[in-house]
């Protein structure tokens, strides 16, 4: 049994003007080809790593084609996307010519990819493989929790397998699961039938953390349904509101064994369960000063602010300055910001050297929405070329690069300034500069939730905030001209007033 694998992985924000180009895919070995994929991803917590393990478990040959990934950003340039997709298909043809016909394909995709001129980038990739493979060779696809899933991609694939966790610590597990599904399908042990139930719902990010209420209730429903006779797998997708596409929003996907009606009815059942409780998935925006006040009331440190409006993991520029301005205005001590994207200042710090003081104009360079630059004197405490190895739960086993970087201090506020627009998945890069996050009283991270996997064990409290930034969580303000239906909580309003934070969630509305 021979199964091809590849993918083009991108979370695309149409709120960001900067296009995503081939050079961004190629940054830090973001395009891996052929057998190099096996070396790069074996033993890592990504879906392709799970495919590799799954091939060994299920005794099939994995035929690696091409895997391309880029940091989240704006629309992908069409010619660059076309080049990647064509190379992947050419490699498939070459692999069949050299080693014989493949029996199916495992695709590692995201679910919120948008290409200039193609609203459903992921569906386009799946459809291209379906055209090549024909109707009889199965295609199984892994997808992120934050996909804007479409009817077209569900129709083109045999099965879609979405993540169960946010932060995404189960990516390899879902890859193993997908490998088992396709192997059993080829052997005739399964006959996957997939259905989608779409929801007119924008799901607030603080209410998606799967280890806490209320999202843990959703996953209990998912796992209960997966234990039913005839159900292969169930996927919850909370969507990606920052993509201006017709089918943006949350969805439920169910894969049943040989029974399309069971798949559709089960997806509808779970979808209705979610919709009836829609107020539970909504948290109104929270300002930075209000979040700090809540943290101080608990007297537990560090107080962590998740600056999700400038989450580089969703495509934001990473240079918004409101939180930095707030920390400086309040004269906070032992405060830390991870990370602020500003290549000019990072290079300036490198050139000046450790121990020197530099006059900086920091952040606020990408867009007026991101705030004005902070002009100040900063001390250079450390510099780096940005290379490091992840050691947290999410990407353990992979290396990364933040580009030219520096640890600066302004008063009592520490700022890790980087070049690459990547969120802090763990503490490894900060540690490489000499920053001990556990000793800080206040930490602001340009992330929505992925940081939790590594930072939650040290946190006194965690608060998602809506500071000035492109990726506002006030959904009324998003430029979504292509959507074709009323959405909650925009036109369809919450039924109940916001609730106070609970022990499990620092944001109101999520209890």
Strands, total number: 19
Number of domains: 3
Mean pLDDT: 96
Largest beta sheet, briefly? 8 strands, mixed
The helix/strand class is alpha/beta
Query: Strand arrangement, largest sheet?
Result: 12-13-16-17-11-18-10-19
Task: Kindly estimate the percentage of residues that lie in beta strands according to DSSP.
Answer: 15-25%
Class of the largest domain, according to the CATH hierarchy? Alpha Beta
End-to-end C-alpha gap: 48 Å
| CATH topology title of the largest domain | Rossmann fold
CATH architecture of the largest domain: 3-Layer(aba) Sandwich
Calculate Rg over CA atoms. Answer: 22 Å
Helix content: 25-40%
Give the count of helical stretches.
14
Query: Looking at the structure, what is the overall shape?
Result: globular
Low-confidence stretches: none
Provide tags for this entry.
511 residues; globular; alpha/beta; 3 domains; 29% helix; six-stranded mixed β-sheet; Rossmann fold; 19 strands
How is this structure best described in words?
- The chain is 29% helix and 22% strand.
- With 511 residues, the chain is an alpha/beta fold.
- The chain has 3 domains: 1-190, Rossmann fold (3-Layer(aba) Sandwich), CATH 3.40.50; 194-284 and 476-511, no CATH class; 288-472, no CATH class.
- The strands form 4 sheets. Strands 12-13-16-17-11-18-10-19 form an 8-stranded mixed beta sheet. The chain has a 6-stranded mixed beta sheet with strand order 2-3-1-4-5-6, with helices on both faces. Strands 7-9-8 form a 3-stranded antiparallel beta sheet.
- Helix 3 (47-58) packs across helix 7 (171-186).
- The relative contact order is 0.13.
- The mean pLDDT is 96.
